[in-house]
Design goal:
The strands form two sheets. A seven-stranded mixed barrel has the order 4-8-7-6-5-9-10. Strand 5, helix 1 and strand 6 form a beta-alpha-beta unit. It is an alpha/beta fold and about 210 residues long. The protein has a single domain, classed as Putative cyclase (Glucose Oxidase, domain 1). The chain has four helices and ten strands; from the N terminus they run E-E-E-E-E-H-E-H-H-E-H-E-E-E.
């Protein structure tokens, strides 16, 4: 069974503060006598379901077109961590996370975030948990909100979840819709748009589970 965990792009979708909003405009129209329907899309590299490349936070880091498909696809462990205000190393240590894993975090964000409203507070990793995953050398971390960075009120000056992960080339998939999936082992199929030199890109992310 294939499960699409990507949010649709709409006029009402949530966008991280100060990031470009999504828009679509018909520029050729069959009803107006044009030979085809053609639309112009405006979108940010981190709008909607997307992948963060290392160059998003790391000077000289890999851009999205330099990332292998092997790094974005493979076996994933989906952890249901709802009921926790933040994701800690202690919580993660209860799971068998090994080098090369893709880790998907289902949190209380899935209970309240539906792709349209920006949250003032949300669940994500603490710094120690991010360092733990980087040391484990996982391939990618996925989360059910549009950023894995800590809420502004909980940030420590000079520290960044993005930097901890991306500096170790742990890729980040943000804004996944995990409302219809349960804890378990899945195959991840993730294909960001191949944009030369980009710091990230919108992606279609699909989970497969043999049922």
């Amino acid at each position: 069974m294939l499960i699409d965990v990507s949010y649709p792009y709409t006029d009402f979708m949530a966008v991280y503060p100060n990031n470009p909003k999504f828009s679509i405009q018909r520029v050729q129209n069959l009803e107006k006598g044009d030979s085809a329907n053609v639309s112009l899309i405006t979108i940010g590299t981190h709008t909607g379901t997307h992948i963060d490349a290392p160059s998003h936070f790391v000077s000289g880091g890999k851009t999205i077109d330099q990332i292998s498909l092997e790094a974005l696809n493979g076996t994933a462990k989906l952890l249901d961590l709802r009921g926790n205000d933040e994701i800690t190393k202690k919580l993660l240590s209860h799971y068998d996370i090994v080098s090369g894993d893709i880790v998907i975090l289902k949190t209380d964000n899935s209970n309240v975030f539906h792709g349209e409203a920006v949250l003032k507070d949300y669940v994500t990793l603490d710094y120690e948990a991010a360092e733990y995953l980087a040391e484990k050398n996982i391939k990618m971390i996925c989360i059910d909100y549009m950023t894995i960075e800590r809420p502004r009120a909980k940030r420590v000056a000079g520290r960044s979840i993005h930097n901890i992960l991306l500096s170790k080339e742990v890729l980040i998939a943000e804004m996944l819709d995990l409302t219809q999936v349960v804890e378990g082992i899945y195959q991840v199929y993730c294909f960001p748009i191949n944009i030369a030199g980009a710091d990230g890109a919108p992606a279609r992310v699909v989970l497969f589970k043999d049922v």
